[in-house]
Amino acid sequence: MKIGQLIGDNLVEDGATLQMGIGSIPDAVLSALKGHKDLGIHSEMFSVGVIDLFRRGCVTNNKAILAKNLCEMLEIDYVNNTHIVSLQPTMTAINSCIERAYELIKIAHPDHREALEKAAFERLQCMPAP
Description:
130 residues, mainly alpha, Transcription Regulator spoIIAA, 2 domains, 7 helices, 3 strands, 8% strand, globular
């Protein structure tokens, strides 16, 4: 997916600490990070792409603050604590809000879909799509 390559090449620096969601956009970005170094993970969830990056040596958590062990499972209150997040070097969030908006609009009552699409377009500056 081209968007993954664009994000990986232009928005994720070597040494960045990643927070990610689940979906095709985060997956596409993760697959585009195979040449990156010293990435960290500070996220309440992640997909199999992180495991691939760990095996390739791209994810080391060497620069992440506090949680050095990649496999350390911490309480959600800690992981999402804004003070802890602010300590992470080059914190980079990768999510798929556009995909999520599309899925939510798709299951909304038909009487409300047009208004939701309009609101999403105004907010996101694009039409939500899968």
